[in-house]
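RECORD TYPE: protein structure
NAME: Cupin domain-containing protein
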Amino acid sequence: MGYHHVAVDDIDPEPDRPSTQRSVSGATGLERLAAHVYEVEPGEEIPLAYHYHDEQEEVFYVVEGRLHVETSEGEFAVPAGDAFVCEPESPQFAFVPEDGEATTAFVVGAPAVDDVHPHDPDES
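PREDICTED:
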């Protein structure tokens, strides 16, 4: 058995990200689940690019603020207390617009695989 009590503010942010990403899974050594806390300021995004995953399922739980997610089906505005789910092969791009408010989101993806592919919405 193994347990971890994690003080998220004590996790160093991942370098070279468009917003502040703190990896809970990285700090605890989880291997089958990717879990991150994002602090996203207006005009920032969570991913490095509009993308999709082959196998990974993702859940974006908005802790505070409002997260926008651009998809092939349109843009969704997800308020605090709600979650947004992306199934595999579903293109998505999560961000906070320039006129939005600072947002915190807890994002979980499983399995924890590197199966990300860029998506060009103009080619859909």
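COMMENT: The two ends are 46 Å apart (CA to CA).
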